[in-house]
């Protein structure tokens, strides 16, 4: 049972990753970003997720530095993720992109490095680079993002080291049940981006009804549903009250009936690009 913000899932290589984190997608460089990261760490978050394409790694790094100082914690108590962008996929170019991200973040190592999208003909070379970084101890865990089952199967044919994480769009309108069960079977931890569907499902009557029953917000109900499904979750927010509120999900448990009711909202509906059909 996940009881606190610092509770972790153990990845296949023994590395511990907090179940709950802060995402910073579309948060621009500047004081708001630095403050969001610092605030999250202050209130107990230990998992911070960014990516090269977000163009905010410098601010995230500053927020981490200030947050650690304010919370009196050391680097090894945090779990920091970044991702290599499509334009940099390739063996040498991925190694270079990693160093750039590390420098911007101002860190000596990353806890998790991901291939951001499964660009055909490119992700296998990039994966070799991630394996090199992993073996060199520059990153504690490696994984992928937006990979469907067939992408994972294709990668597993050549991978020396199995992806430890698959971070995908996942929310009650896109429950990804088949992918979840495949990842469970293969000991790949599933992680949800856009768990609140960019706010588009916060007014759903079915979810509001469940939220009232538990005296919680719809966002808290969804995030709890993720955790009970064994999914790592990284909701994005820059507002202090929301950062605190999002993480207030450890004092209740959704019943099997309510879990099933949320599962039933699935419509295979994406707010982000389709991993089988993107052109960037």
TrEMBL record:
Question: Matching Pfam families, A to Z?
Answer: Aldo_ket_red
Instruction: Reply yes or no: does the keyword Oxidoreductase apply.
Output: yes
PROSITE patterns reported for this sequence = ALDOKETO_REDUCTASE_2 (PS00062), ALDOKETO_REDUCTASE_3 (PS00063)
Q: Keywords in alphabetical order, please.
A: Oxidoreductase
Q: Where is this site: Lowers pKa of active site Tyr?
A: 83
InterPro entries in UniProt: AKR (IPR020471), AKR5G (IPR044500), Aldo/ket_reductase_CS (IPR018170), NAD(P)_OxRdtase_dom_sf (IPR036812), NADP_OxRdtase_dom (IPR023210)
**According to its UniProt record, which residues of this chain constitute the active site?**
54
Residue ranges annotated for the NADP-dependent oxidoreductase domain, each copy included: 31-266
One annotated GO molecular function is: oxidoreductase activity
Lineage, top-rank taxon, reads: Bacteria
Q: Which residues bind substrate?
A: 116
Which family does the entry's similarity section mention?
Answer: Belongs to the aldo/keto reductase family.
Name used for this protein in its record: Aldo/keto reductase
Q: Which organism is it from?
A: Heyndrickxia camelliae
């Amino acid at each position: 049972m996940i009881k606190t913000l610092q509770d972790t899932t153990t990845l296949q290589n023994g590395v511990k990753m907090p179940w709950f984190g802060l995402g910073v997608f579309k948060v621009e460089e500047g004081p708001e970003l630095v403050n969001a990261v610092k605030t999250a760490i202050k209130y107990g978050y230990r998992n911070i997720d960014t990516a090269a394409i977000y163009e905010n790694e410098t601010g995230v790094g500053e927020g981490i530095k200030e947050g650690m100082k304010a919370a009196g914690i050391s680097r090894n108590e945090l779990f920091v993720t970044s991702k290599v962008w499509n334009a940099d996929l390739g063996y040498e170019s991925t190694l270079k992109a990693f160093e750039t991200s590390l420098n911007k973040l101002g860190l000596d190592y990353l806890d998790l490095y991901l291939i951001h999208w499964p660009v055909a003909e490119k992700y296998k070379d990039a994966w070799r680079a991630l394996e090199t970084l992993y073996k060199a101890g520059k990153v504690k865990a490696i994984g992928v993002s937006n990979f469907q089952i067939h992408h994972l199967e294709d990668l597993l044919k050549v991978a020396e080291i199995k992806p430890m994480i698959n971070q995908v769009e996942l929310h009650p309108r896109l429950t990804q049940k088949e992918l979840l069960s495949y990842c469970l079977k293969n000991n790949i931890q599933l992680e949800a981006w856009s768990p609140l569907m960019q706010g588009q499902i916060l007014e759903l009557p079915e979810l509001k009804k469940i939220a009232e029953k538990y005296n919680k917000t719809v966002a808290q109900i969804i995030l709890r549903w993720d955790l009970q499904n064994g999914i790592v979750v990284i909701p994005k927010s820059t507002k202090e009250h929301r950062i605190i509120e999002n993480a207030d999900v450890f004092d209740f448990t959704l019943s099997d009936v309510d879990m099933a009711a949320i599962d039933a909202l699935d419509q295979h509906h994406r707010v982000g690009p389709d991993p089988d059909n993107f052109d960037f």
